[in-house]
Amino acid sequence: MISEMFSYDFIQRAFIGGVLVSLCAALLGVSLVLKRYSMIGDGLSHVSFGALSIAIACGIAPLKFAIPVVIVAAFLLLRLAEKGKMRSDAAIAMVSASALAIGVIVTSLSTGLSTDIYSYMFGSILAMSKEDVAASGVLSVVVLLLFVVCYYKIFAVTFDESFSKATGVKVGAYNTIISILTAVTIVVGIKMMGAMLISSLIVFPALTSMRVFKSFKSVTWCSGVLSVLNFTIGLLCSYGFSIPAGASVVVSSLVMFIIFIFVEKVVNLIDKNR
């Protein structure tokens, strides 16, 4: 089945693009989850859906329109949270609901968009184009370089912003970079996972890794490996059972999370008996 599956060009594109997006989301997700800012993925996915709906209705290239819009939304959410004008969870909820409502209204007023919008809502392995794979490749290189070059500063900003500021680290700049990269990751991956499920790529790997591993480095490594593994299993199930890829990846991630809970309990039991 696997050899037959990878004989199709659209599966090859979906696999390469999906693995790269999953890896980026997982690495960024570690920092976002530890900063208790993981729901930004859900909020930005809804903003992306609204922007894509408008782009398709107006005949504009979806990615070229959606990426700047979602980046602006990420920047505004970050600024609202930093200045204390609104709690981050409240700001995300407000923006998320508003963007989703706009997307639904645009879709209902336009004719012939239901198929395209459905794929953006729930994901489709047929939707990944060569341009999306190329964008995924560029994005993954940028994210990996960020973590390799700025690892210790990201570590410091994630755990103690006050101390980082005191030592001269530009906390605002790093938070902005992480938010922008998260926004681009969501827009690129939304075709595969869908607006309703794309945030799971950010949250699940980090939360799963934290059940067993305790250091930032080990959680980051484990999250990257799990993201690729979960996506691969999800894509195989999607092809084998003819179900949406996004839902398959999320269920795969959920199963892995449950497995890691049991592993955590076994490890704790062994430690107690020593």
Query: How much is the average pLDDT?
Result: 84
At the third CATH level, what is the topology name? ABC transporter involved in vitamin B12 uptake, BtuC
Order of helices and strands: HHHHHHHHHHHHH
> What is the general shape?
globular
Q: So, CATH architecture? A: Orthogonal Bundle
Described by strand count, sense and barrel closure, the largest sheet is: none
**Poorly predicted residue ranges:** none
Note the gap between the termini.
46 Å
Provide the number of structural domains: 1
Q: How does the helix and strand content classify structurally?
A: mainly alpha
Helix content: over 70%
Total of DSSP H or I helical runs spanning 4+ residues: 13
CATH class reads Mainly Alpha
Write the layout of secondary structure elements.
Blueprint lengths: L1 H4 L3 H26 L5 H19 L3 H22 L4 H22 L4 H9 L7 H20 L1 H9 L1 H6 L4 H23 L6 H11 L5 H26 L3 H28 L2
Key terms:
mainly alpha, ABC transporter involved in vitamin B12 uptake, BtuC, about 80% helix
Please give a structural write-up:
The protein has 274 residues and is an all-alpha fold. It has a single domain (2-272), classed as Orthogonal Bundle (ABC transporter involved in vitamin B12 uptake, BtuC). Helix content is 82%, strand content 0%. The protein is built from 13 helices and no strands. The chain has helices at residues 2-5, 9-34, 40-58, 62-83, 88-109, 114-122, 130-149, 151-159, 161-166, 171-193, 200-210, 216-241, 245-272. Helix 2 (9-34) runs antiparallel to helix 10, helix 7 (130-149) runs antiparallel to helix 10 and helix 11 crosses helix 12 (216-241).
